[in-house]
Amino acid sequence: MAASLEAQVGFGKAPAARTAIVLLAIAGTLAAAGCAATDPPPVAAPVTETATDLAPSPYLAMLRDHGIGASIPSRGKFVLVNIPSFELIALEDGVPVLRSRVVVGRPGNTTPEMLSSMFAVRFNPSWTPTPSMVRNEGLRYMPPGPRNPLGRIMFDLDNEEFIYLHDTNDRTLFNRTQRALSHGCIRVEQVRPLAAWALGVSEKEIDSMISRGTHSVALPEAIPVSLAYYTQFPDQNGEIASYADIYGSRHGTQLVAARARASVGAH
Questions:
Q1: pLDDT by residue (tens digit) across 7-65?
Q2: Residues 24, 25, 28, 34, CA torsion sign
Q3: Distance of CA 110 to the CA centre of its chain
Q4: What domains sit in the chain, N to C, each tagged with a CATH number?
Q5: Of 52, 134, 154, 179, which one has the greatest count of Cβ atoms within 10 A?
Q6: Could you give the residue ranges of the DSSP H alpha helices within the chain?
Q7: Closest CA to 34 of 87, 110, 102
Q8: Around 240, how many Cα atoms within 13 Å sit in the side-chain half-sphere?
Q9: Quick one: 115 exposed, middle or buried, by C-beta within 10 A (0-12, 13-18, 19+)?
Q10: What does DSSP say about strands 180-182 and 95-105: parallel, antiparallel, or unpaired?
Q11: d(Cα 188, Cα 48) in Å, to the nearest integer?
């Protein structure tokens, strides 16, 4: 892709410094894969619940009563994306504060289940398609701008699969009932409110940040993000709703197994 690794790192440097530069060079190469943007995200450790957390909120208690083990902490910020319901829920201290429709990966390019962490918001990102996207779909590198598939905002997540949350240049997709349409990353309808909440600023400040061109803003604190797969999940009224098993996999039995584990634990 570029000059040799030896030329990039420079062998006149001290061993420790040389090792760090090698790792950065490798990360830059890997960033061209998947649905990654052109600049690779740095590593950020997931935030975990501490022993000082208090009793779960009524919402978390309700989830656990239904056998949904989403690993949501009782304190702090947390983002849950339920893939089958095409929904993102932002929680603070165990209470939902934002819900958004999302677009997830199509069956041929599934969104993986994972627990990651969000550590930065990138404004006006560029986009580089994978070689298979270029070969099979004729897609090309897209600079920042209104035609960019990532839209104006991208949320950097710490994971090795280069999966992240982002805006989109086609907001009509959120009007569809079936929204398994992406190459694996998650497109978020309420992207500006989510960015404002994650950074602890107003949506007006988010608009100002967008106007400054391409740049990244680190979050005050990393936010855990769970990409989960529940074919039965509470709706906005707290009622359990059923959703299609869009990936046609083992996930359809996940809730039954979770309830069984919860029942054993309760006794």
A1: 333 434 444 444 444 443 444 433 334 564 444 444 444 445 444 457 889 999 999 88
A2: negative
A3: 13
A4: 31-266 (2.40.440.10)
A5: 154
A6: 5-9, 15-30, 58-65, 131-137, 191-199, 203-211, 254-266
A7: 110
A8: 11
A9: middle
A10: parallel
A11: 24
